[in-house]
Write a structure and sequence with these properties.
Helix content: 55-70%
Radius of gyration: 26 Å
Structural class: mainly alpha
Number of strands: 2
Number of helices: 24
Oligomer: single chain
Strand order of the largest sheet: 1-2
């Protein structure tokens, strides 16, 4: 095994080496980066190919198969990056010059200051010409412009690092380069802004519903441009996540689950005296929020309530230290533009109005973070949700964190939302509506994210779906879509909430409802196997043989009866 005594040891070194290579080659556009990464993955492919798969124990077999799947995913991601860069090359013709400058600095080749200043001037002059030619006739799409804008800003960051390395340390460099650099830096920032405001983008949006002033509080454009990957790449991503369904099949599953939510919403609305008008009942629940300043105490009480509920029913082991160390922070107003609700883990970050918000923004934040929406969120973020999950992931099979998948990460928390509902955690109509609102949101995420990435919906239409179909406040819907379509999350992440939860629920029913495991034994076992595709988790827990090619598992987890 090329000097490795176990598959785990091989994985641990791969993770360290990969992180080191990423640090050495941080810029996605850097010259030679794709080639070096592909070479790196080939080296590790050779290492794992030397392993006699049939002689491995059960855990090592799973790890080896997962590693093969990971290498395939990493190679595909590199190919996608190369393809996207080729699509924006006409908008960034100066990229080879920048690459040459950055690579020379990494090689510690001292620059010729006068020549460096001249090259910066050349780039700045080319930017002037490019800005003048950005018209709807020669720009392919708003997506292409957005991708080019992101690379332009990455170029700006790379040149800033290059400049800081020499500025002030090399007097001649400083004398020649400081002013041309400052001029180019401003020009790159301006060019990125111009790309994002190109005529094609504006015309693409003009025939959609006018959401530029969605907050109702300013004339600022709230235009969102994401990064749709296309149906082919979407199907490839699903295959690597071991989800044996087409995008259209998954959208249909999300729609069926949404219909269930609507039926339950109508029942809760009737119990509140609103008849079948569940949207009216939802609007009523939004008004049931605490006063400014009281949110932290409410979150504390909700967290304790969830822990007491799972303890009383012996559902999962919660280590004493895990109970002790969780903390709370407040989400900044700027962060709330992207995360209008809560984020969790060891520290739960709480969204709530701040004094600098407009009156309309305060109203939306209060309504979106009301007592009953928050009640359904706190257990998702803390215990038994992400905090417990991450606590255990750092202590059991930690080498598997390189296989991290949103279907496990968010599937765990959605499984708890399903299970807590079935166990009566929602006692009142208001509490049921709070839980159902988020469940409907997860269903909508499947539909809008998969349709968006196939080019079937625009970002504005995604916002409108959350407002009209789910009942979000418009500012909150805008923030959710901005976050969903941004670079911080992979394309399948939003769909993975509901779909991962359905996978986990199916596995729970197979092992617990059937009487093979207790709820506590099941949940403890899931946590101790760390973040792996749930199809592989199922194979481990059921004793199924784990194939070298994991796609052979072919687990169709959704009960359509």
């Amino acid at each position: 095994m090329s000097g490795f005594s176990t598959v785990r040891e091989l994985l641990e070194q791969f993770a360290v080496d990969r992180d080191a290579l990423y640090r050495a080659l941080p810029s996605p556009f850097a010259s030679g980066r794709p080639e070096r990464l592909m070479e790196f993955y080939a080296e590790w492919q050779s290492a794992i190919d030397e392993v006699d798969f049939e002689k491995l124990g059960r855990d090592d077999r799973a790890d080896a198969a997962l590693f093969l799947n990971l290498l395939e995913r990493e190679r595909f991601d590199v190919q996608q990056t190369v393809q996207r860069q080729s699509e924006v090359s006409s908008l960034l013709p100066f990229l080879p010059v920048v690459n040459e400058i950055v690579v020379a600095r990494r090689a510690l080749t001292r620059p010729d200051p006068a020549r460096a200043a001249g090259r910066l001037d050349e780039i700045r002059s080319s930017l002037d010409g490019l800005t003048g030619t950005l018209t709807s006739d020669n720009v392919t799409s708003c997506v292409t412009c957005e991708r080019a804008a992101r690379v332009a800003l990455q170029i700006r960051e790379a040149l800033a690092e290059w400049f800081r390395f020499y500025d002030g340390y090399d007097p001649l460099f400083t004398w020649w380069v400081r002013e041309p650099y400052k001029t180019l830096d401003a020009a790159l920032e301006s060019y990125a802004s111009r790309l994002r405001a190109n005529p094609t983008l504006q015309s693409d949006q003009s025939d959609k519903s006018d959401l530029r002033n969605v907050g109702g509080t300013s004339n600022e454009s709230h235009q969102i441009v994401g990064n749709p990957i296309g149906k082919e790449a979407l199907c490839a991503a699903l295959e690597r996540e071991l989800i044996p369904y087409s995008p259209d099949e998954l959208i249909e599953i999300g729609d069926r689950e949404f219909e269930w939510c609507e039926r339950e919403m109508r029942l809760a609305a009737a119990d509140l005296g609103f008849g079948d008008e569940w949207r009216a009942a939802l609007e009523h629940v939004k008004t049931l929020h605490v006063a400014p300043g009281e949110q932290p105490e409410m979150i504390r009480d909700l967290a304790n309530e969830a822990v007491e509920f799972v303890d009383a029913r012996d559902l999962v082991t919660v280590p004493p230290l895990c109970r002790e160390i969780w903390r709370m922070g407040m989400m900044s107003p700027e962060a709330q533009k992207v995360n209008p609700f809560f984020l969790g883990g060891e520290t739960i970050l709480v969204s709530f109005p701040t004094d600098g918000m407009s009156q309309e923004q305060k109203r939306m934040s209060l309504r979106g973070n009301n007592r009953y929406f928050a009640r359904a969120t706190v257990q998702h973020e803390l215990i038994p949700g992400h905090h417990l999950q991450l606590y255990m992931a750092e202590r059991y099979r930690a080498h598997r964190r390189i296989f991290s998948t949103p279907f496990y990460i968010e599937g765990w928390t959605l499984h708890w939302e399903f299970l807590l509902w079935e166990l009566g955690f929602a006692r009142t109509p208001e509490e049921r509506i709070g839980m159902l609102f988020w469940r409907m949101h997860r269903c909508a995420r499947v539909a809008f994210s998969l349709r968006y990435h196939q080019g079937q919906m625009t970002a504005d239409e995604c916002v409108e779906m959350l407002v009209e179909r789910v009942g979000h406040e418009r500012d909150n819907a805008l923030a959710e879509v901005r976050r969903s379509l941004g670079d911080d999350y992979p394309p399948l992440y939003q769909a993975a909430y509901l779909l991962g939860g359905l996978q986990m629920r199916a596995l729970y029913r197979e092992l617990v409802t059937s009487g093979q495991m207790t709820p506590r034994a099941f949940h403890d076992a899931v946590l101790k196997r760390n973040s792996i595709p749930i199809a592989v988790l199922r194979a481990e827990l059921t004793g199924q043989s784990i194939p070298r090619n994991l796609s052979e598992l072919n687990w169709r987890f959704y009960d359509e009866s």
